[in-house]
């Protein structure tokens, strides 16, 4: 398990990884969070959308230099006014 917290612009604010987790956990967690922030929805929603339009999401991943990952696991947290936290 790993957790990446990004700001509205996709910049890393905090990261934590449990002991023994794969060395890839940072990149995976950050890419899931980056995609959720960029698209404004949870990564679960992105994964569902990717099933119906995989080429669009492959293009997004390529355009984002690999920073975009439409896989479940990222939760988009917003404040009461609707701004991403």
Please provide a brief summary of the model.
The chain has 85 residues and is α+β, with helices and mostly antiparallel strands.
Task: Provide tags for this entry.
85 residues, alpha+beta, two-stranded antiparallel ribbon, 41% helix
Topology:
Layout: E1 2-6, E2 12-17, H1 25-39, H2 43-52, H3 54-63
Antiparallel strand pairs: 1-2
Helix pairs in contact: 2-3
Give structural notes.
21% of the residues are buried. Strands 1-2 form a two-stranded antiparallel ribbon. The protein has helices at residues 25-39, 43-52, 54-63, and strands at residues 2-6, 12-17. A hairpin with a 5-residue loop joins strand 1 and strand 2 (12-17). The chain starts with a strand and ends in a 22-residue tail after the last helix. The model has no long low-confidence stretch (mean pLDDT 84). It has 85 residues and is of the alpha+beta class. It contains 3 helices and 2 strands.
